[in-house]
Design brief:
Blueprint: E1 6-13, E2 16-23, H1 27-48, H2 56-63, E3 69-70, H3 73-89, H4 98-110, H5 116-123, E4 131-134, E5 139-142, H6 155-169, E6 175-179, E7 182-185, E8 195-198, E9 204-208, E10 211-216, E11 222-225, E12 228-231, E13 234-235, E14 240-241, E15 247-252, H7 255-268, H8 270-278, E16 284-288, E17 295-296, E18 303-307
Antiparallel strand pairs: 1-2, 2-6, 3-5, 4-5, 6-7, 7-10, 8-9, 9-18, 10-15, 11-12, 13-14, 15-16, 16-17
Helix pairs in contact: 1-6, 3-7, 6-7, 7-8
């Protein structure tokens, strides 16, 4: 059977340019697949964005105050995964840090650090323990006014997964979805062992199939002040942006796992990050910028590594 031809397309979604590469029977199948996958990502952006006032996420931040509000399957799935990781990390990953994130976004725009008093006030409204999920009823409840959910550390990974799921249902077996630092892959390209990915935190190239990769660091979003570079990644315990200039890359079976793990490990640091990675089957983590580059995994590695 002849190899399927290669197609690629890109569209702006979720505050970045999302690219999709795939192999299809013909141009018509490719165009149909691209449209369905991009539409799915756009749908999720309408639900999960904290930038859009009418998003489901922002409506919940306004309406779920001390009362349960039923949410969509997608939002509940994302929040449930986030809360599980928050429990596993003692809050190193926390989607309730929205009030603090807003201050640091403004700081990057204005090129100065947030006011300490404002940071303290914002941080007082943050804690994953103030967010409650009821799985049976599929509801969300927030404990107090001033809370704001921000799923930026998990949404792109989930969206990449969802786009791949759409492509599979349309008969696309080999595809890659790239949403900024979050990548997801299905079967290998025809004639190859996997999709080749250069790992930012390592001098290696991985060949991946049916896996996801997420990279976190301060190379693109940061503010410099007092001789320090402050990342866009916030330590939920202090409300302060990270200054360790560490790059973390996580390989996992799904983007909803890789994306938040990369953020959590950035906050935890190398030692605790390695311990966290070891608890997840099929996960590998690469860290650059601390004392060494490390790779930790448990269970079957989702890809094969070759020298770059």
């Amino acid at each position: 059977m002849a190899a399927r031809p290669f197609f690629e397309a890109a569209e702006p979604h979720m505050g970045t340019l999302v690219g999709i590469k795939l192999y299809a029977r013909n141009e018509l199948q490719a165009k149909t697949a691209f449209r369905a996958a991009f539409d799915r990502i756009a749908q999720l952006d309408e639900m999960l964005s904290d930038y859009k006032p009418a998003s489901e996420l922002n409506r919940i931040s306004r309406t779920a105050l001390r009362r349960p509000v039923k949410v969509s399957d997608d939002l509940f799935r994302v929040l449930a995964a986030a809360q599980q990781l928050a429990e596993d990390t003692g809050g190193a990953f926390d989607v309730t840090v929205g009030p603090v994130v807003s201050l640091w976004r403004e700081a990057r725009k204005e090129r100065h650090l947030p006011d300490p008093d404002l940071l303290d006030a914002a941080l007082s409204h943050c804690s994953y323990r103030k967010l409650h999920l009821d799985k049976a009823a599929q509801t969300v409840t927030l404990d107090e006014e001033g809370m704001q959910l921000d799923v930026g550390g998990i949404a792109k990974g989930y969206a990449a997964d969802a786009a791949l799921d759409v492509l599979r249902r349309l008969g696309i077996r080999s595809a890659l979805v790239a949403a900024s630092g979050d990548l997801a892959f299905s079967d290998a390209p025809p004639g190859h062992r996997g999709w080749k990915v250069a790992i930012a935190a390592s001098d290696s190239v991985l060949e991946l199939t049916n896996a996801a990769v997420s990279t976190s660091g301060d190379s693109e979003q940061y503010v410099e002040a007092n001789g320090k570079r402050y990342s866009h990644i916030i330590d939920p315990a202090t409300g302060i942006a990270l200054t360790n200039s560490t790059t973390v890359t996580v390989v996992a079976p799904r983007g909803i796992v890789a994306d938040p793990l990369a953020t959590a490990i950035s906050v935890l640091g190398e030692h605790q990050g390695r311990k966290l990675a070891a608890k997840h089957a099929g996960v590998a983590v690469y860290i650059r910028g601390s004392s060494a580059t490390v790779s930790s995994s448990k269970g079957r590695h989702p890809g094969r590594a070759s020298s770059s």
